[in-house]
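Continuing the batch. This is chain 6 of the set; chains 1 through 5 are on the previous pages. Same settings as before, nothing changed between runs. Recording input and output for traceability.
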Amino acid sequence: MDTEELEWLRSQKNVPHALLVKQGIALQVAHEKGYIEDFRHMQMDTKLSALADSMGACERIKSTVFPRQYSYYSTVFVKVYTFLLPFVLVNNSGWITVPFTIIIGFIFFALDTIAGGIENPFENTINDTPMSAICRNIEINLLQMMGDKDIPEPIQPKNGFLF
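Output for chain 6:
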């Protein structure tokens, strides 16, 4: 991209959508100039539409508000369950109630913590979908298909995590 295009892109609120619109315009211009025939234009337009649909689905996932009540009440229920568990086990288990309660309580608290961590899958943290790496792989594939010689390297894991 030249400087003017880059500045235009930086001024956009939704950069992926702006890029899709720009690609759609370039595709239309290529068709009008006769660089691609009707069938290929239609196929490429269909692919752009599918990409826009996928992007919209991901944006809906990212922008969906997760009900705080679910997170709050699941934590409350885990605490109540862990508090009441020893009273249920003590008659049948005796002294082993303490380690059982600790192990079972740990498992439930770990699951509650994991559930809280995966509420937002596109925040670019270690537990999220590695969007940067996925986008880089798509970029590499597209550049190779176009015959470009300046291919970027795939994103490598940092400390064992792919972002």
